[in-house]
Amino acid sequence: MTTNTASKIDPIAIRQRRSLGLALALFLFAVYLLVYRGGFHSVDEVSMFAVTESLVKFGRVNTDQIAWTQWTTSQAEAQGFFGADGHVYSKKGLALSLAQAPLYGLALVTPGLGMLQTVSLLNAGVTALTGLFIFMFLWRLGYAAPVSAATALIFGLATIAFVYAKYLFSEPLAGLLLLLAAYMLLAYRQEGGLRHVVIAGLAAGFAVLARANNLFLLPVFGLYLLWVASERISESADQRQAQNGWHLQAWSSFIHHPSSLINPVAGFLLSLAIPGAILLSYNAARSGNPLQTGYDLTLFTPNILLGLYKLLFSPLRGFFVYSPVLLLSLPGWWALRRRYPAEAWLFAGLAGVTAALFSAWSSGEGLSWGSRFLVPVTPFFALCLAPIIDFGFWIDDLCPPGYLRKTKIVLRFIFYVLAPLSLLIQLLGAIINPWAFLSQLQADFGGEFFLENTAALYNPRYSQIWGQLQSFGVANSDLVWWQPAGFDAVACGLSLLLVLLTGWFLWQILAKPPSRQAAKLPANAQPATRNTHYVLRLTPSLPTLIVLTVVTAGITVFLLTRYYRTDRQFGPPDDSYTAALEDIAAADPASAPIITVAQYHYHVPMNRFKARVPLIGLAQQPPPLPETALPLLAAATTADTTWLVTLGFAPAAPDNAAEQWLAQNTAKIGDDWRDDSVRLVTFTAAAPAAERAVSATFAGMIRLDGLRTNPTARPAAPLPVELRWQALAQPPADLTTYVQLLNIDGQV
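Request: output the structure for the sequence above.
Response:
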């Protein structure tokens, strides 16, 4: 491969490439907007979102608002851990939380936008950008525009990347960052320029910040960079002498020009320092140890073959089962290796190391559509489809000439079968919530959460693909505009209109079929030469692209504001839970953290509560409270007033340990029912101290024996009064007590 391929592409072709890439990304985003749901599907998403919330609102990284996750699952499944300061911290990578921050901040200050609903679009944009970079990568390799665009569309619509564009997992972002790193190293190979290496290092480093396991992929990028640097060294030597003694000539060139190897390697390593420093600082902030992420790194199994089967071929989550078109990436890789061995081995290294690592990882994937752990390397599998799609020029690399025609026919037939099948599978995963079937499956197997040791790994009847068909219906819909509460024709129509508009625009600028002369080019023709025989239908002007982008953004914002009012997973827009929190924030803007016991409604304030008042979310559980909960409660009871908001609990409920602790360690001064389920309970930290004996009988049924109060209460501070009653007989009805405060003149 020559290093000046890009220089052979004229400026018009470069503008066409950028126009087509942007149109492709807008079309993919429009499709993802059509199947948008918004909200959480897994507690993993909640944990990373909670970091974003704390970071934007308070400049902190704890996740106290979902502290309940520490006690509702086993320690191995818990989403976080308790730091040395007593706060809860997420075990997840930080990169996704950082990426979510701009969208969260925008929604936080914009009326009518929900923070969670807005952030839920992040991976739609990330996956669309990944498709764009797949297109750009293949263009740099010399593939024609239709082949590059078709490969990107296959990735975006016919692989598991389609379904994960709906979720807030970190894998799509990690995949984009890994692909960006590979793309920039390819740009360095073709054009030179240390800036490409620096960007590649930053992207690879932030991929580690997204998912710590990507640390094992850095050596793969390093080997590719050494390959490229060595190649550039050899090209600086005399070509004729290099043919006779390449290694000697290359070594001589390195001796005279050591910077040709040292500079790119040093640039790559130094650029890793920025995300590396962020990761070490984040670890130190949450655990006190820069090297501790909170994960148990001992969960490995020696049965690698079983792990590979689970990842790649099991009916439950097999990578190739849920994206069957990617089976063709295997012969495609072989063809790619013949022409671009460095890039092919880079793809194989990234995919192979990732698959090997998670084949040995004994912890399950929780909610997954296919193998969630392999989503970050799905773009590299998709890139290997390009030789298969480019039937006219690349299939000759797969077999001897005598079998060429038969091989073309067979692979063409397989592709035309597997591509629509893969698209149908992704549509099933995007339209119906996979949890509908998966939760039933877990119940059938006795509550086994990961289903790791069950027949679901082997029996096709337990496949989620089949389960989606069984679950098909509005009751399990994962489309925001198609819900049991009603069909939103306006939202559906606008989303579909945007898909048609961006699709039509993409079609207008896609390449025409190659000319007859291009089809007769020899197999060893340079890719850039063949590429020029494809003529795009139009090269849209910059204003046209801007208008299309603005239209896409406008429809997106309109839909988000509509969903903020209509999406009933968050209850009505004026729900009592959010209203209670907002009343506290309005009455006491500098309030200590609000304690909540509403673990099944955590998503409601995450979407609607915009006040900068922290929450401490505790679990529904009988006493005693876990020791780890006590520092959180103690921190929330330091102010004059402590606020508790519960949902679904009567006063003194036996399974509300948090309220019982507050009743014993503070004094309740208010109990406000907002509706049939939401209560706003007020406590004061100034517990009553002075005892006063009283003997007063009321109607011969109850007697007031005494009271306790605090004689040193400050002006404007709560005055706790604790009454001690004795029942003398069964009252005929419920009684209400009240306390009046009189001044020195005896006036109320």
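The CA atoms of residues 113 and 275 lie 31 Å apart.
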